[in-house]
Amino acid sequence: MKHTTRIAGVSALALLLAGTSAFAQTTLTGTQALEDRIEDIEDDIAEDMERAEDANRFGAAETREGLSGSASLGYSGSTGNEESQDLTAGARLRFAQGQFVQTIGLALEFTETDNQATKEDVFAVYDANYYFNDSFYGFALGRIASDGLADGFADRTKTDAFLGFGPGYRIVNTPDLAWRVQAGIGVSYLEDGFDNSETETGYIASSRLFWRINENVFATNDTDILKSDSALRINNDLGVNFKVTDAFATRVSYLTDYNDSNAIRTDNKLGVSLVYGF
């Protein structure tokens, strides 16, 4: 059974470099399509850079008491030479009560082209942290990813789930340097397109590093390791942000996915985000 999985908590990379597709015309003049595409690119890059500098990913979570969150829903449909429908939805809920912080995230993506479903993906994560003091905390993590179109494919993962818990420790926590590690034990569940499933003990370890080199440069490195009898899976996301001038900034990232149950065990992805304003 071949598994292709992504460990929870690993950051997703935003758009790299905009190519000529940014200028594709979907109206007679293409003006509105161009504006929409440029805004999408700007939003993706800004989110990538802001997420990298998010202090809550590295220091103790500081959030308002009670319930907070956000939700989004998107739909597009076309008819004519090609009929297609796209539906995306996402939600994030956070509940903080004293030293206990819980977060739930949900993402859904459904695509249909010429009355044929081409994507039915669901991804959900539950993350809970209890802070005993400024350095020591305990975590519980649950995640599930589902591919609704994996039926009949032995090399596709229909359901990938993990539930685990353990301790975490903030080794360093300053404005310029923050590093925390956590490790735990749990249950890993994998099911392929022929409903062959494996339930086994899984061990997870994670590291989050933030280093502000100077006022213009900072680096991040996120590492997640999940080990079970069926596979060793490792994700590492290294990123460096540069503020060259007040008008120009860039982020370079390198994402590595390793899964020793795959024929090709390692996938690598280089990302470059550029922002220039004048």
TrEMBL record:
Residues 66-80 have a biased composition (Low complexity). Keywords: Signal. The keyword Cell inner membrane does not apply. InterPro entries: DUF481. It comes from the Bacteria. It holds the Pfam family DUF481. Residues 1-24 form the signal peptide. The keyword Signal applies. Residues 58-86 are annotated as: Disordered. This is DUF481 domain-containing protein. It comes from Fertoeibacter niger.
